Automatic annotation (TrEMBL):
Similarity comment text for this entry: Belongs to the SCO1/2 family.
Region (Disordered): 26-48
Polar residues bias (residue ranges): 31-41
Coiled-coil boundaries: none
Full protein name: SCO family protein
Provenance organism: Capnocytophaga gingivalis
Gene3D superfamilies reported in the protein's UniProt record: Glutaredoxin (3.40.30.10)
Stored Pfam families: SCO1-SenC (PF02630)
PANTHER family on file: ELECTRON TRANSPORT PROTIN SCO1/SENC FAMILY MEMBER (PTHR12151), LINALOOL DEHYDRATASE_ISOMERASE DOMAIN-CONTAINING PROTEIN (PTHR12151:SF25)
């Protein structure tokens, strides 16, 4: 429960700070045409727009870069169940185990009878943006056979990465030029971007995470 409270407060506080900055900037801008993101526009056209709660990570305004060089925000993932972990690709200890856990989670979900399995995004957020450039992440994804549409690698600058880690209650610290110590947490978000489950540990039983993913998929109409 502590992690759920921390995430909720993190989203609310970070969004409040960002909104203050955005609102100030807007006062000096000339009104211009608003460009809707694809996900939101599609929902409105289908009559299925979903209100975003204060607890949703879809409120976070920061832009991230994928392994394919695309610019995205968290709200662009609306309608999908998200399985999120923070790693760095040069890690030789914990991260390979976390990645193996993510693979196993996906394999188990795919083997189940859950509906809408294509609606799961397995997202790996880098805590080492200096090394994990989009080009590096793309190469890593290809070499790891994690390069289909359901695998998403994200990176941003150090400040935004640190802010997002705080939202997830993930702690990390650089302990050498090439190594980090970090929390080993896998988080599941529902289609509204709200935290559904978190589990910490390496190489442990992930059946509760899989069950939560399946339950969220069952709710998709």
């Amino acid at each position: 429960m502590k992690r759920f409270f921390l995430l909720a407060m993190g989203v609310i506080c970070l969004q409040a700070c960002k909104n203050n900055t955005i609102d100030t900037a807007k006062e000096a801008e000339t009104p211009s045409e608003t460009v809707e993101n694809t996900a939101t526009k599609s929902q409105k056209e289908e009559g299925g727009a979903t209100e975003i709660s204060d607890l949703s990570i879809y409120n976070l305004p920061d832009t991230w870069t994928t392994q394919n060089g695309n610019q995205v925000q968290w709200k662009d993932f609306q309608g999908n169940v998200l399985v999120v972990v923070m790693i760095y690709t040069s890690c030789k200890a914990a991260c390979p185990i976390l990645i193996a856990d993510m693979r196993e989670i996906r394999k188990t979900v795919e083997a189940s009878e859950a509906p809408h399995k294509e609606k799961v995004k397995y997202i790996l957020v880098s805590i080492d943006p200096k090394v994990d450039t989009p080009e590096h992440l793309k190469k890593f994804a290809q070499e790891s056979h994690m390069d289909d549409d359901q695998w998403v690698f994200l990176r941003s600058d150090e400040e935004k990465t640190r802010e997002f880690a705080a939202v997830l209650a993930v702690n990390y610290k650089q302990i050498s030029p090439v190594d980090f110590s970090h929390s080993n947490i896998i988080s599941v978000f529902n289609t509204k971007g709200e935290l559904a489950a978190q589990q910490e540990g390496l190489g442990i039983d992930r059946s509760s995470i899989v069950q939560q993913i399946k339950e969220q998929l069952e709710k998709i109409k």
